Fold this sequence. Notes:
Blueprint: H1 2-47, E1 52-60, H2 67-81, E2 89-91, E3 100-109, E4 112-121, E5 127-136, H3 139-146, E6 169-171, E7 182-186, E8 192-197, E9 203-210, E10 215-221, E11 227-231, E12 241-246, E13 252-258, E14 265-274, E15 287-289, E16 300-304, E17 310-315, E18 321-329, E19 333-339, E20 345-349, E21 359-364, E22 370-376, E23 383-391
Parallel strand pairs: 1-2, 1-3, 6-8, 15-17
Antiparallel strand pairs: 3-4, 4-5, 7-14, 8-13, 9-12, 9-14, 10-11, 10-13, 16-23, 17-22, 18-21, 18-23, 19-20, 19-22
Amino acid sequence: MKKIYLFILTFVITIGSVCAQSRDNYILQIDNVVKALSSDIHRKLTEEKAAKVAISNQFAFGGSIPPLGSYWSNNLTGELANISNRPYILLADGIIGADVKISGEIVEIADIIRIYTRLIRQDNRAILAVFSSDIERNAVTTSMLAGGRSGSVYVPLDDYEPDSWENPVPFEIGENENVTIIDRTIHEYGDEDFFLLVPKSSGRLVMETTGNTDTYMEFYDADTRQLLTENDDDGENANAKIIYSIEAERHYIAKVRGYGGETTGQYAFRAYIVPPRAGASVWENPIQYVIGTGQNAQVVNRTIFEGGDTDFFLLAPNSSGRLVVETTGDIDTYIEFYDADTKQLLDEDDDGGEETNARITYNVDSGKRYIAKVRGYSNDVTGSYGFRSYIR
Length: 392
């Protein structure tokens, strides 16, 4: 009986050893394929005189990134990094600044898993080369591939991660809604994406997301990190959309996240300038308003024709005192009150006036200049309102 037990134990150990060796052999085969591929890629990068190269983690299969894709990307990075005297450098944090990006796709063909590896020039999106690598589909490679088909939805990091307040993704503002979009993902619970916007001219800036993910957008002054406005569903379906009057050369941050803490998915971001309509006021050319001395002060009638319309009023008090700035009428307005020279926000109000009108009362200094900015409370507010300001 002891001999039988010994035989069974020996058999199990032998089978386990064989399986381990087979697994190691299959992994070694992948490593060898990647090693040969890296040599071909290195020659092409050298030929193209690449300077900065980014290797994407997006070797996707079936819309997600399986363990095989991550393993392939990491191995390729290691092989290229170990090549001595490279004429190019490998970037570690996303594709920003790269002139060539390496990415790919995994497909199944009968008993073969084929991995396409592409070299893409970033300035014009030209494909410099495509390499195809075939590996055997077996128990090991199939299990590495099956990770991309789990029951839970897996959303990959996008090429612009990691981004943050200190490292936002620069976005070139377009001149119309046909501006090139940036595709991004909310890849995990609590993920936040940051976009740096520096307008070349003043005007109304439109920022929006598109896609099937429920997004939430916050808009900030990049230097002070002051929250300027935020939005949930003003775009199509459950997308966020903000329209805001901005100033030339000022730095802004648009922050996008999922509406709920558990929201993940893909979306696209775009931003473009809508030129001021004829007769509209801007910060550089505000409406000159003569401050009154009581509630009988002159009322200037204005109209918000479409979402995002904003009026700027220049106020220069002749005496110090309590200045009242308010709107009248039937639409829901919002007032922001600034130091005109430093552009510092001094106060803001939504419903301090009658009904949904805004009202601010502020201690002002004689001879100092102030700006009152009036807009609708949200992007869907349109209609006429009155503006007046007086010392009381």
